[in-house]
Design a protein that fits this description.
- The complex is a heterodimer of chains A (about 90) and B (about 1000).
- Chain A is globular.
- In chain A, strand 5 and strand 6 form a beta hairpin.
- Chain A has a single domain, classed as Folate-binding fold (2-Layer Sandwich), CATH 3.30.2270.
- Chain A has one helix at about 35-45, and strands spanning about 5, 10-15, 20, 50-60, 65-70, 80-85.
- Chain A is mostly beta strands and about 90 residues long.
- In chain A, the strands form two sheets. Chain A has a four-stranded antiparallel beta sheet, with no helix packed on it. A two-stranded antiparallel ribbon of chain A has the order 1-2.
- The model of chain A has no long low-confidence stretch (mean pLDDT about 95).
- Chain B contains 23 helices and 50 strands.
- In chain B, strand 47 (about 935-945) and strand 48 form a beta hairpin.
- In chain B, helix 5 runs parallel beside helix 6 (about 220-235), helix 5 (about 180-190) runs parallel beside helix 11 and helix 12 (about 530-535) packs across helix 14.
- Chain B is of the alpha+beta class.
- In chain B, the strands form 13 sheets. In chain B, strands 8, 9, 12, 13, 14, 15 and 28 form a seven-stranded mixed beta sheet that branches.
- Classes of the chains: A mainly beta (about 90), B alpha+beta (about 1000).
- The interface of A and B includes residues 44 and 60 of A.
- The complex binds zinc ion.
- Zinc ion binds near residues 8, 59 and 63 of chain A.
């Protein structure tokens, strides 16, 4: 069970969180012309990386904040976590 | 029967407490502190079971967790449990156990015929034999394997025992209470660290209980007792015996199974049977010791052949002689320690040492005691069927290839020691890449992956002095990092005898003309010849060899067999052992009962049960409940002998003719507040929200980004910046997360807050032509006329002094309202509605009637919004705005979603107007078409229309729009039904929706 550092609450076990997928995906702006390819990339196409991955988790049984977690998908090592509005450098 | 093999002046058992127990129906006696194994051995019982494949007689091989043979079926307190190791099961008064794998009895076992047919049962036997013909599998092969295999039977009764889960955090978790566990725990505890020390056996001390050493002028055992006693007094320390850490998971989470009650005749009141600990440790110290490994020789599975360390443990811990004429066969000094213990207790052993001329303090002591030692000698084969009677022995050449003349010597047990294998399972599970240590011919942990360190014998360190030194240091340094205390500890003086280098020899060659079985894996009957076959047939990877031969796959997970298997593969393949590599160690280290894993989450406790504030009223009024997600909802209210069908028909009919009331508390409710609330709704829902006036409700549909309908419900504008959103019962939590996702991550610029208010409000739907009359009486001071409270209107009201929210919304298609009050007043509201409604013939209605009403109106619900349909499929395209953008809109342009023959909701009526159509039935054109019959659609929901008094169903049908009036067949192979049907409009009742506006 992963041990995730919620930037709002501190270290909490994985069972308090729910997974939200790739955090690098950006939703196309509303009311903007979007090509089929662009839309498919947003809705369906994911890289499914092996290695360092920036992903979303929601602290669903805690502060209910969506957070970004930098995790290695192969080793489960978590490097850093960020608030939703924090820039990831 | 007397305990003929029990000796005086030895053992840690309580001789004042004699216990009786039964094995295979026969009564024996033992003492408190015995295991089932030690008590049986005290009574001279060596035959405990039959082997898995050949049904050869099996005895005891070990004295603990490594035991491959002595697996029994246990009976305790009216329950039975399979797969219990007799070497781990503590004796209690009245214990009953039986052998497994034998029929009709352990002494006469018909399956033993496999032993004589073994030429037909080589490696891969199952794969080769049971493959064809295919039709034989279910009828012949599987029942045969099931009967012949298996290590006992699972109980089919409901388990009365209770199991608990516990979550714990600590600075240092220490696995194993041998010398290294005790030393590190002590040092860490002295620095104030929060320590958990776990020991799988009932007694703390590990090897110190049986070794002949001195620590700080005390015996090792006394030193261990002193340390444990002191640790137990310290508030920052938890010491747990009977507790096995069996799994090492991510981020230093370890799981431990504590046997709370297995050593007692019955579980104490309020105690669990087992407790599963989830422990998150800052640092983990693995001091799990080592397991002696066998030397492989002919018939090495005969009862009476056992590990030399086990023989010593039976003697020193339990005061039991495993034989009176022991033969010790060793390649290192450990065998001598066992021989010395025998000699000290008046028994004359013979030692066969594969080494030519070993010298050490231990060997000197054995010589001084006058023990008969034969160097460069090996056991070629054990003789005896159900018990060792003698051994064929021979001298062996220095290159270990040539045997001398075979002699036979009498003996009643063979104690074998092939040196020690560190227990690296936990380290390996943590992700540690193990490395091979040449000096000990075994793997030890390599670079730490998580915060773990392995010490003592588990790390391949076999001298006590070094073990204690490194363990005190590790305990002190790791705790210092955490607590910043640095209390010095003086390391006690250690007296131990030096031992000499072991011999790398591990397998006795077959003598010419002999074909003895030489077993590697004792539980799964894997012999040297099986591995040879696998390699001959081309298996190379050790993982494949394991699966093909089942080496190391039994319940003991190859604790004694793995390394010898690797050595054999490396020899045949002419590779070094590290190049062969070992198979992956996976949790659990030892079998864990399913009950412990499940914990308290059984039956009703497997999920929370949510009840509305009106639940007790429903109960008192004969409601029959149904699970709706985690909620319990009234399905119908039973009157007299009514069944579900009759009751729901009555309730639905009463709504259509008079008035009914339904508990709708379970609907999800979300408060949406803030200046940008309307903008959020406008982006989330498919229809327009910017112009909804205060005091008005609107029905909305929300999509996922892929265009699939996610949820529907009404949202009401309570005040300028305050909206009350409702969701379906099932989607409440998902919708909240969905809104939070967009507000926090996608549109953080929107000034809106959302919060769940599901629990804050109790809801009652009042539906039927007389609902307005009832409402007027409930709220005499409010104008609830069609003008005062029009369709989709909202107002606040005063319900006999309680503030209420009144919504004019309808799910039943009738004139209807929904009244909400704060949850605490829910029951008050309900009783008032029933009381005032009496004159209008009100009846409560449950979910079944609710479904009937919505189905015949063609209102979609969960069975249509099933995660596969878009708005068009549900005839909701009128609610999809063409002007504004919203979540999922772009996806609706996908070619499949705009196809001419796109699926769509329709109504379905059986031609005979009698036969109900099972939900899930497929709609097909031709009921006689060859299979697979092309499916045009499926029945999503069925009811008995109270309006027309005939069955009616909804279906999602390909090209549904153009199918009205067509005749099809509804086929349900599950229910064995083929029903001719006609496709009609999904709006079966009141298609223009006049009633809700009346
Ligand atoms: Zn949090």
């Amino acid at each position: 069970m992963l041990y995730i550092n919620c930037p709002h609450c501190g270290m909490r076990s994985q069972n308090e969180f729910s997974y939200g997928g790739d955090a690098s995906v950006k939703r196309p702006e509303l009311n903007k012309e979007v090509s089929d390819q662009e839309w498919d990339n947003f809705v369906y196409n994911r890289k499914s990386l092996r290695g360092k991955h920036l992903e979303l988790w929601q602290h669903i049984s805690g502060c209910r904040q969506w957070i970004k977690v930098e995790r290695d998908t192969a080793t489960h090592e978590i490097f850093r976590t960020f608030k939703a509005d924090e820039e990831v450098a | 029967m007397t305990q003929a093999f029990r000796i005086e002046n030895s053992g840690l058992i309580n001789r004042d407490k004699k216990l009786s127990f039964k094995f295979n129906g026969k009564t024996y006696f033992g003492y408190e502190g015995d295991t089932l194994a030690s008590a049986l051995l005290a009574n001279g019982v060596h035959l405990v079971g039959r082997s898995f494949k050949y049904h050869r007689p099996r005895g005891f091989f070990g004295a603990g967790v490594d035991e491959p043979y002595a697996v029994v079926q246990l009976y305790r307190n009216g329950e039975t449990e399979p797969n219990i190791k007799a070497t781990e099961q503590e004796l209690f008064e009245g214990l009953e156990a039986k052998s497994v794998n034998c029929w009709p009895s352990v002494n006469f076992d018909i399956g033993a015929i496999n032993n004589f047919l073994r030429i037909f049962l080589p490696a891969g036997f199952y794969y080769k034999t049971f493959m064809w013909p295919k039709s034989f599998w279910y009828r012949i092969y599987e029942p045969f394997i099931r009967k012949a295999a298996g290590l006992g039977v699972a109980s089919i009764k409901h388990d009365k025992e209770r199991y608990e889960h516990k979550y714990e955090y600590c600075d240092l978790l220490i696995a194993g209470s041998g010398p290294s566990g005790l030393a590190s725990a002590y040092a860490a505890a002295k620095n104030g660290a929060k320590v958990i020390l776990a020991e799988d056996k009932p007694r703390f001390g590990g090897s110190l209980l049986t070794s002949d050493v001195n620590i700080g002028n005390q015996s090792g055992k006394d030193w261990a007792e002193g340390i444990i006693a002191e640790l137990k007094t310290m508030p920052n320390v938890v010491v747990k015996n009977r507790s096995q850490i069996f799994g090492y998971y991510d981020h230093n989470m370890l799981v431990m199974s504590e046997k709370v009650s297995d050593h007692l005749p019955t579980t104490k009141k309020y105690h669990p049977n087992k407790r599963l600990w989830y422990i998150r440790a800052k640092e983990v110290l693995i001091s799990s010791g080592s397991i002696e490994r066998p030397i492989v020789f002919g018939n090495n599975d005969t009862p009476g052949v056992m590990l030399s360390s086990a023989a010593k443990e039976y003697l020193k811990v339990y005061g039991v002689l495993v034989g009176r004429k022991p033969l010790v066969f060793t390649n290192n000094d450990s065998g001598y320690e066992t021989a010395i213990e025998f000699k000290k207790h008046g028994v004359d052993p013979v030692v066969l040492d594969s080494r030519k001329n070993p010298e050490s303090e231990i060997i000197d002591e054995a010589k001084n005691l006058g023990i008969n030692i034969k160097n460069s000698y090996v056991v070629v084969a054990a003789q005896g069927y159900k018990k060792v009677k003698s051994a064929d022995i021979a001298s062996i050449s220095e290159d270990k290839k040539q045997l001398g003349k075979i002699e036979n010597i009498e003996c009643d047990c063979i104690c074998v020691s092939g040196f020690w294998t560190p227990t690296i399972h936990l380290a390996s599970q943590s992700g540690n890449k193990t490395k091979f240590k040449e000096e000990i011919d075994a793997f030890i942990p390599g670079q730490s992956k998580q915060n773990e360190i392995t010490l003592g014998a588990a790390n391949g360190v076999f001298t006590l002095e070094e073990t204690l030194k490194t363990s005190f240091k590790a305990g002190s340094e790791l705790s210092k990092k955490i607590t910043e205390n640095d209390n010095e500890i003086s390391i006690p003086n250690v007296v131990e005898k030096k031992s000499s280098q072991h011999d790398k020899f591990w397998c006795v060659p077959l003598p010419k003309g002999k074909n003895y079985k030489r077993f590697l894996d004792f539980q799964n009957d894997v012999a040297v010849s099986d591995i040879e076959i696998a390699l001959r047939e081309g298996y190379r990877s050790i993982e494949h060899v394991k699966r093909y031969t089942t080496l190391g796959m039994a319940t003991d997970q190859g604790k004694t067999s793995n390394l010898n298997g690797l050595q054999l593969v490396s020899e045949i393949e002419n590779k070094v052992v590290p190049a062969v590599g070992h198979t992956t160690f996976r949790p659990p280290y030892t079998p864990v009962s399913i009950g412990a894993i499940v914990g308290r989450e059984v039956g009703k406790h497997s999920k929370p049960t949510r009840k509305s504030p009106m639940h007790s009223w429903h109960e008192k009024n004969n409601a029959v409940f149904v699970d709706a997600g985690v909620w319990l909802r009234p399905r119908y209210y039973k009157r007299g002998n009514e069944n579900l069908f009759e009751a729901s028909k009555r309730e639905a009919k009463n709504v259509r003719t008079n008035v009914g009331v339904c508990d709708v508390t379970t609907l999800g409710k979300i408060d949406v507040k803030g200046p940008d609330a309307a903008e959020l709704l406008n982006r989330v829902y498919t229809n327009a929200w910017l112009k909804l006036p205060v005091g008005k409700a609107r029905y909305g549909v929300m999509l996922r980004e892929d265009g699939i309908v996610m949820d529907d419900g009404t949202t009401t504008r309570i005040s300028e910046n305050h909206y009350h959103m409702t969701t379906t019962t099932a989607q409440a939590a998902n919708v909240l997360s969905h809104l939070e996702y967009y507000l926090q991550l996608v549109w953080p610029e929107l000034n809106v807050n959302v919060v769940s208010t599901t629990e804050q409000w109790a809801g009652a739907a009042i539906a039927g032509p007389k609902s307005r009359d009832l409402l007027q009486k409930l709220f005499p001071n409010s104008d609830v006329s069609n003008e005062g409270l029009p369709f989709m209107g909202y107002m606040e009201g005063d319900l006999f002094g309680v503030k209420a929210r009144i919504f004019r919304i309808s799910f039943s298609g009738e004139l209807a309202y929904e009244v909400n009050v704060e949850s605490d007043y829910g029951n008050f509201m309900w009783e008032k509605i029933m009381e005032v409604g009496k004159e209008f013939n009100i009846q409560p209605y449950g979910t079944e009637a609710l479904s009937t009403l919505r189905i015949e109106m063609g209102h979609v619900a969960g069975s249509e919004l099933d995660g596969r349909t878009i708005p068009f499929d549900n005839a909701l395209e009128g609610l999809v705005s063409k002007k504004k953008d919203f979540i999922g809109k772009r996806s609706l342009q996908r070619s499949a979603f705009i196809a001419e023959d796109r699926q769509r909701i329709v109504g379905v009526v059986p031609l005979d107007k009698q036969t109900s159509i099972p939900e899930g039935s497929h709609l097909v054109k031709d009921d006689k078409a060859p299979l697979p019959n092309p499916k045009l659609g499926h029945i999503s929901a069925s009811c008995w229309s109270v309006e027309y008094d005939n069955p009616f169903s909804l279906a999602i049908l390909k090209d549904g729009k153009n199918m009205i009036g067509q005749k099809l067949f509804a086929m349900s192979p599950l229910k064995n039904k083929v029903i001719p049907v006609e496709i009609v409009s999904s709006h079966y009742v009141d298609p223009k929706g006049e009633r809700v506006r009346s």
